Amino acid sequence: MADEPAGPPRITVDGKVIEAKPGEMVIAAAERGGVYIPRFCWHPRMRPVGMCRMCLVEVKGPRGFALMPACYVPVADGQEIVTTSPKVKKAQDGVLEFLLINHPLDCPVCDRGGECPLQDQTFAFGPGESRFVEEKRHWAKPIPINPLVALDRERCIQCSRCTRFADEVAGDAMIDFIGRADGTEVNIFPERPFTSNFSGNIVQICPVGALTATPYRFKARPWDLDVVESTCTACAVGCRMALQSSQNRLIRHLGIDSEPVNHGWLCDKGRFGYELTDNPGRLRQPLVRRGDELVEVSWNEALDAAAQGLRRIIDGSGPEAIGVLGGAELANEDAYAWAKFAKGVIGTDNVDCQMGDGLPADVVLGLPRATIDEACAADAVILLGPDLKEELPVLYLRLREAAVDHGLKLIEISPQPTGLSRHADVRLQYRPGEVAAVARALAATRVPDDGAGGVSAGEIGAAAELLGAAGSVVVVLGRPSLAERAETVADAAGVLSNALPAATFLPALRRGNVHGALEMGLAPGVLPGRVSLDDGRAWFSRAWGQVPTTAGMGTGEVLQAALDKRIQALVLVGADPGADFPDRALARGALSGVGFSVVVDLFGDGQAFPDADVIFPAAGYGERPGTTTNLEGRVSRLGQKVTAPGTARPDWMIAADLAARLGADLGFSSLDDIAVEIERLAPSYAGVTPQLLARPGYRDGVVVPLDGSGPSETDRPTEAIEVAANKAHLGRTVLEDEPDADAPLQPRADAPISAVAATDPGAGPAPSGDRPPLLRFRPGPPSRPAPPVDAYSLRLVASRSLYDGGTLVQRSPSLAALAQAPCLRVNPADLGRLGLTTGERVRVTSSRTSLVLDASADSRVLRGSAVLAFNAPGEGAAELIDAGQPVTDVRIETMNQGRERSK
Amino acid sequence: MITDAAPIVTARIGVPQSWTLRAYLENGGYDGLRKALTMDPSEVGQEVLTANLLGRGGAGFEAGKKWGMLRKAEPVYLVINGDESEPCTFKDHMLLEADPHQIIEGTLICAYAVGASQAFIFVRGEFALGIERLTAALNEAYAFGAVGRNILGSNFSIDLVVHPGAGAYICGEETALLESLEGKRGYPRDKPPYFPAAIGLYRAPTIVNNVETVSNLPWIVTNGGAAFAALGIGRSAGTRLFSVSGHVKRPANYEIEMAKTTFRDLMYDPKLGGGIRNDNQLKAFVPGGVSAPWFGPDQLDMALDQDAVGKAGSMLGSGSVVAMDDTTCMVRAAWRITRFFHRESCGQCTPCREGGGWLDKIMRRIELGQGRESDLDLLLDVCDNIAPGLSWPPQKTTICVLGPSIPSSIVAGIKMFRDEFLVHIKEGACPFGR
Amino acid sequence: MARLTAENLQRARQLVALYPQSRSALIPILHIAQEQDGWLTPDGMAHVAELLELDPAEVYGTASFYDMLFTHPVGRHLVSICTNLACMLNGAEELLEHAEATLGVAAGATTADGEFTLEEVECIAFCGAAPCLAVNWRFFGNVSNADFDQLVDDLAAGRLADDVPPHGTLCRVRRRVGLTAGAPAEAGDDPGGRSPQDAPA
Ligand SMILES: Cc1cc2nc3c(=O)[nH]c(=O)nc-3n(C[C@H](O)[C@H](O)[C@H](O)COP(=O)(O)O)c2cc1C
Ligand code: SF4
Ligand code: FES
Question: Residue A807: is its pLDDT beyond 90?
Fold first, then answer.
């Protein structure tokens, strides 16, 4: 338009001038300006539909004022709006009365009672008595639409928030309106439950009690709940959430609308994983091995036993004979304490927070990083990683929205179909093991005529063309299959970073605080703050007294070394290689063969760690404060809402106590001591002080390293916070912040950021000399190519699903029920070629072992490959994988041998 | 007065096998299209503008003007509305069965004028024979070269698809129709911004015209817009089809010249409605579909003039006139209409979805003799919460005008026959014995 | 019961090809599924969902909005009696009562032998011949009680099979050409149905 008004549009609401954002709806602008217009169907994170008609206001048009839905009228400069006239009041009263005529009067037994927008608005805006004398509408109530969510159709007010969420946000349109007129109900297709990974969100956004969460039903009344903000650590996306407790039990998690991260959404694993906290199997007391048995002992006794065992090995075989594995489930401060313990006190670099299912630390830490927002705003995103819908669910939601609504181009490089495949502009479905070849072909000036890695030249050309036209490119980088070695992916990443020098990377590692653990140095060859062992040696030696002299081994090598008796002690900090390492035979062998092992965990019943010598009970999520770092490098605060069971302690204390037993002083007596030390010593965390993160504008965290302009505050949209604070919809409420544990601590004066450093004078000395430089990834030599596939084998793709055999899911009863037994998915042509039918039990044999599994036909699986869940409960891909091989090939045979097959 | 204006859209009705290409060609078929293709598309639009052709679907908007409002973007779609479901309207049903080629020809002329890239004729699903005849006619037209590539040897090419509905009154509303044509539940879209000419089918600019509207186009192109405008008076130009039903002796569709003929002519003229059955007294009548507020005998001499009827607080709407004689229970009549809207509400808007059901229940209890005197005020107030002010054309608290149409018969009923409502209440029974 | 047969799958694919977006073919394809099975079976809906890359819930949600699409079994003859205003004024309610008595089922129900489903419907746009009804969407006007009884007899005896196909069959004329494809001209293609509105041939 020629004469676009210069500034933002200004609208007048009830005489008050409000500055609006271009394109936003009147309802949102008015709310920011302090005028709350009631609503049911409108939700700030979904497209408006204008259905419920609760938000009717008068808008001045060419023919005078007319009733219009404020949620559906975009702001326009000079617009005049009236929200309080008798006409508006009558219309709103009328809508509310209409809604109530068929709404049951069961508020006293409704989970939403006390935090119900309908209830609240009836008080605030509604008419008095009902003039409706007839029988209300009846439906059978409530019906489960999946194991987590129950639907009471009598309470439903047909706002369509749930159906829109399912279709528009999650892409899981498994619930819809059924019927017409006042017979309309929300429902599922007969016998097909709402198997969405995001189903809990519809409970949170339901403005009445029609949708309730089965795990929460009747557990508490909203007014009894305490609340604190936190960041979810069920995966590395780091969604902001509110933890709610009643009587020192976590009872509900709600998504908080964090603009840069989760937009209010949570996946069901994050939402319902709180059940684990309460699990009766939680360790309450340390355990020590006495003969064949693990017995409860005092902390002193256990610490002594652990220290003695470690001391013996350090003295006898040197510190390198100890491996410290885990830490990706810890808070940053805990991870730092353990890194300092391992590298500074014991002196071993055989330290790894990843279980062979991630990427080398230099790849993750050393490639230029993108934020989620940057990925969504890019012209193109290369998806070279796992199925995000299953592993990093809310990142899937964000990217899906960007692709569907904002034209983000997606190039998927994966050996299997994923949740984003249907939105991908180009799909390069490659032969397992050959991702680096595909990347090379993509980067080549001329695409090889016969394509690469099983992908045609045409497809690679299309992707190259798309990338050529894209101004900004973000690579989402992770492990497309755990049956394919990390080196190949690192190789591919190197090729892409050379070919696309302006591209940035968003690592798609799954484990909760794996990024914090890597930043804190829990990996071989690195030290806290994103520095390499060599670069940081001088700096950290001065601060810590010592650091290892040479780079150590990662988890895979450590396990192999344990099997070979070169490693004689393992310290497992919140990690179970037996369950999580892709090669189960190797991990189990190592764990049972190692001479001495110390475990720090939430659970320790003999089943989990049959070979442990000492087990320490640790405090878990919601039981300790601290900070966490998500896949963007965003550092935000964890909330503590309940106390840990028994004598369980925060992990950092256990590290400090063990250090003391070994005659060393880690140098901190509180969590804040650690935070201050991290800020002071770890280069990438410079400027990230507890004070900074406690400020309201930084609740959503800051991305490290802070750049010169200082961290930016984020704008919190409304709804989720309100719901979390039990002030549903009636106005803006900000959560009370948790009080700071200790006296305020100041950041260093010379922290390399302006805004904070200028206002907070420094404290605490830094070591003399220059801070070490941040790590940069330098691609290594090309990875080993995959051998040719023989005609009788299928090449394995090991995928993960959200509900797995892992601790979080298995210890949360509501989630455990959702985990499915592993099933081998094969292209129908291969199935046919092998003379098999879908649903048949088959024997699957690799060089490692042989398993009996169900096989099913899936035409989206590449010919010549077979997809199997890794880490599903029971035996799966981990049994079959040989971590020493670049790829894993399997043979499949029918179990019906000898019998005549009927079809 | 009935004029001797020659019929336009019903000219071929009564011709043996009128629905076949042979019969159509023998009676001037496809001449209009042939002529249109020699003109510039804008000239065709100009003729229609000159003709003053008002839409025949209900809203009565000038066709030529609507075409001129298309957002400038590609592609443009044309959708012909053959969903005819307004109760007591049965003219499009007849046109579909008796003269499908005329609809095809009109559609093609319209498509040519507006530059459409594809056209769809949305036919009410219940019109099985109509769908069969239209499909057969389309096959013939393709074979004849009147549809498809290089139509009648010209450079103009377009495809036409006959799309069956599946039974939902609301799909007659143009935006609900587009949703339905997109394969979804028939939910009307909010206007603004979803005026089809701006954001229509697949969000592309789209013209929606009624079956009867486009059936006039071959004649207009052949005879010129001025000839059409010369019929009728002022804005109410041309002839129009009226569906006359209820208590008349000769219920049927009649094509008559607009504005010159009156409601009385329509219902009483021996060549038209032929008078009230058994020569009973007329008690009230529906002037333009059951969405329209009722008229009483005092309005019989009003001309069938869109603007005059509008000024009197009702509408010509879908062109259906229903006579109700003095044996009619007006409570029952209003209740039946309320029940219709209750059932047919799409269910999106709270006031229409819940209000429709509530009004149905109140009307039912009054008719069954269980009403209370306060119910009349309650009815009016509930109606007011759907259509604030209870005027016509209505203001609305809803997305589309189905909701605000519910009050029409209830409010008119209470206004015109308050005593009859009260008798039901006081006597605890329907005085007409049902 | 029943996924689409190979032939119907072929018809469905042809329908998809007629529209710029495949979901537009949903309702026409559901008519075909209903023609095949007499109603929309869960398997049928799931198959259609597969074909159009929709979730079955979306197919079900859409189908359930429309009166003509049945997600539960109905009789071979769907008898739809209009009781809207024009018909009501001409005795439709009495006709409906008579029909209920004759068929021995209330409106909305199906006879035990699965032959007839009776329903009360809104205006079917045949008001010039009130009271009127439709059987499998073939229209009958000015229906007296006696006419109704005769009609039921004729239907049951199969005497109207030419005019009234089994429930679900909407259109017996197939579109001959896809988009922009010219097909060779063929002589008249009269489906052979008749309407009480027709002029004598
Ligand atoms: C509730 C409702 C039902 C309608 N039903 C029909 C209908 O059955 N047929 C029709 O042509 N127009 C119907 N209309 C009008 C259409 O929305 C639209 O105005 C018309 O199809 C435009 O065509 P025209 O300009 O040629 O009249 C309906 C409108 C409403 C609000
Ligand atoms: S007014 Fe009624 S029919 Fe129209 S959109 Fe609203 S609910 Fe649907
Ligand atoms: S119509 Fe605006 S909030 Fe529902």
Answer: no
